[in-house]
Amino acid sequence: MNEDHPMNDYVEGDPEDWVRIISVDGFTFLCKRKVANMSETIKNSLDEAGGFSEAGTRTYKSQERGIVVQKMIEYMSFKAHYSNVGPKEEIPVNEMMDRLPLEILLELMLAADYQEL
Amino acid sequence: MSGRRNNVRGPTSALTDFLREQNITATTVAARAATQNQPVAGPSTAQANHAFDNADNAQEARGSSRSRRRRTANRDYDSDDLDDPEAPVTKKRKANSSVAKDKAKKLTKKDDDHEDEDEDNDPYTLLSKMGANPRPANGSIEKCAECDKEFSVSQYTIAAANGPGYLCHSCAKKLGNDPFKKPTAPRKRTKAADKRNIVYFEERRFPTLVSLCINVVSTHIDDIEAFGDIGALNMEAISKAMSKKRSLNSENVNLFYGAGNTSLTLYDVTKLSPAALITLGHLNPNLTSLRLDFCGLISDEVINSWCTSLPNLVQLELLGPFLVRAPAWVAFFRSHPQLNTFLITQSPRFNLECLDALIDSSSKTLTRLGLREVGLLSDDFLEPIGLLSGHLTYLDISEPSISCSNTAVIKLLKKAGFTLTHLNLSGHIGLTDEVLQCGLLPHVNTLDHLMLSNLPLLTDEGVARFFSQWSNPPLTSVESSRNPALSSKSLTELLNHSGEGLQYLNINGWKDVGATALGNIATQARNLRSIDLGWCRQVDDFIMKSILDSCKSWLAEVKVWGCNKVEGKWVTSGTRTKAKVSGIERARTSF
């Protein structure tokens, strides 16, 4: 087999790219790829090497409602920022917890589980 | 301790060497000091101190030679440390108050061997203070400068901070100069690395959104109405999500209870105490079906309580109820004569008596029986199971401690096999092809799921022959892992027999199965949902590509652990699939 396309170094999207996440009720969210990559499922589907069709259009169609998607993206930005923070900084987890409204909590938990968040 | 010669022979400082060369010894300096009583230049002051002390010591009753030796040792130690600002200051006897004050300050982390001393910052004044208050002899009685108590002077007596005089042991300790105190270990600085990992929910991991949600659920468990009404299907998904990290506990499990519930499935109840499990029964009185995984804490008490609190229960599935003793099981069966499903995994205590009780009470209704990993399973058990003939559809007696024999199994299949749709005989290592030929072949014709893993005595020809002759309709799932003797013939006949119906195939461990037979999977088994080809060494990228292409509609999972030839090249050749392929070794780098 010709090895002109080595498997190891596949092209990953530029983390500063913008990607689109669409909720099931029609809301569109634009966010940076590095934020979207916090979710394993979104990362895999937008990953060009994975062979999924979403990779080309840089759009991910979520099966969740807009509110839920919004909260997830909020969490993903929180995670993206604080994952790289220095060792001495406190991560304000409780703040994030306070921002989860009870009404969508269970739906959010299921969505988070699916998204491997 | 005292008098120990310091055996360290290291490089001495230039100073020491110089002094030695010049023949400046303790005695010469002392003589000079005594006569002149004037400040002498720095280094030799140290010498003078030594010399003076030595002269002083000579008058003492005991320990003079000892102290001289110590002095010598100290001297080396001293001069070596002259340049080191942090060096522990050697302790020498000082007959001086101001020096004692500095001493008091500097007395930390020192060797017990050395007495308090003070490498005075001001060597000029040092010598002038000498001779003012010669230290009283060891053993003599002195009055304490602080508390006026009488005490006997020892090697460790410290001079008072202000004014002449010495301190008794207790006053010295109050100042913090306890010479008997063990040196404090230096406090370790918490490394930055340890500080970084904040332990909130899991150590060393950024808290996941799922865990955050679970925590909020737990805190607000009393406001269940606020969560909104979620259907039963979602409840199951939620219980799965919470069980993943073993987050289910006695508080948040209440989320799943309801007087109207008829079925309850909890995937990890490790953290539920027996009391909580009893409560489970009380709060869900209308349950007809109950499944609890990892229920190690279920005790006799719980089962006894369920006898009355769950009157409508007809389906019970428990993973891990190893604490329950035979009498409790018997009582439970007697109180539930209408059981139709009884599946347990892992119980060393479930014995023949229990089984008899079960069959006695529920023989008319029991359709599904599972006694997986039940330690006491034996041929005797198979007798009463035969009594279930006519309605038994699901039988799982896999992974016993001791294998059942061919005859017993064949007998059982003869009696009860004709209604079976699911059969699991994995792990009965004593079974041979005979079971297939004389047990399954003639008597079992309605099977959908067949599990025959880890039956090392099965042969390739035997299995092939069985599948070629069997009149059963195509199987839906076949699990035959860990049977290294089976190979291409078996696979070919299996595919011929069940190819159209197969949705789940596990031939992990069929190491010799050939590429042609494997290739047939793609052509004959298009409805596969999940396939495990682990350790089938002949699997390679071509076979993978054909499987992925042809089983496109349904395939969700492919496992190829141990298949070295698989490299994942089908992606670049354009095969797109939603199947999850796991087990590919890292692709070899090209040169």
Automatic annotation (TrEMBL), chain A:
Family per record: Belongs to the SKP1 family.
Protein name: Elongin-C
Subcellular location: Nucleus
Keywords from the UniProt entry: Nucleus
Source domain of life: Eukaryota
GO cellular component: nucleus
Primary localisation category: nucleus
PANTHER family associated with the record: ELONGIN-C
Organism, scientific name: Lentinula raphanica
Keyword Nucleus included in the entry's annotation: yes
TrEMBL record, chain B:
UniProt domain DNA repair protein rhp7 treble clef: residue ranges: 139-176
Record-level GO cellular component terms: SCF ubiquitin ligase complex
Pfam families with a match to the protein in the record: LRR_6, zf_Tbcl_Rhp7
InterPro entries xref list: Leu-rich_rpt, LRR_dom_sf, Znf_Tbcl_Rhp7
Domain of life: Eukaryota
SUPFAM superfamilies in the record: RNI-like
Bias kind Polar residues: ranges: 36-48
Biased composition (Acidic residues): 113-122
Biological process according to GO: SCF-dependent proteasomal ubiquitin-dependent protein catabolic process
Location of region: Disordered: 29-134
Coiled-coil segments on the chain, per record: none
Name of the protein this chain belongs to: RNI-like protein
Organism of origin: Lentinula raphanica
